Amino acid sequence: MASVQKEIEEKTSVRLGADFVDRWNAGLPDLFAHGVEAIPYVREFVEAVRSAGIAYCVATSARVSKMHITLGQTGLLPLFEHAMFSSTMVARGKPFPDLFLHAAKTVGFAPADCIVIEDSVAGTQAGIAAGMRVFSYHADPYSDRDGLIQAGGILFDDMRELAGLVPIH
Questions:
Q1: How high is the pLDDT of residue 142?
Q2: pLDDT at 18 > cutoff 90
């Protein structure tokens, strides 16, 4: 959120205040209290990966506390509690590769042996910079399809497609 604040303040005359990030984080539980919907078929994909014995994690720009809220609301938290990585754990967030490299090292894999599933341009750039294969989800109407392509992601728009793109066996 600090980067969002910086961008807003640089491009507009709006000043969000020194406590903006703290106020934002404090308001998240109320913001998500009415529910968060999981991406269609993401549970089935994660469960297939898990059943195949493939290691996986979540590595996001969000704080761990936000992951608990959003993954908790979708019912996916039990699938990810074992390995959640936040950009707060590294010096530089996305689009830098630090977060993905940290997650790979912690889980015990070389970057070239990892894949990234992303929905943002910055995340796609980070995964590519980390030397990982990146699958970029673009079904969200607000996604930047062209930016994802330019960043080097392999595009897909349905989680059911992903099982055919990512070898699960």
A1: 86
A2: no
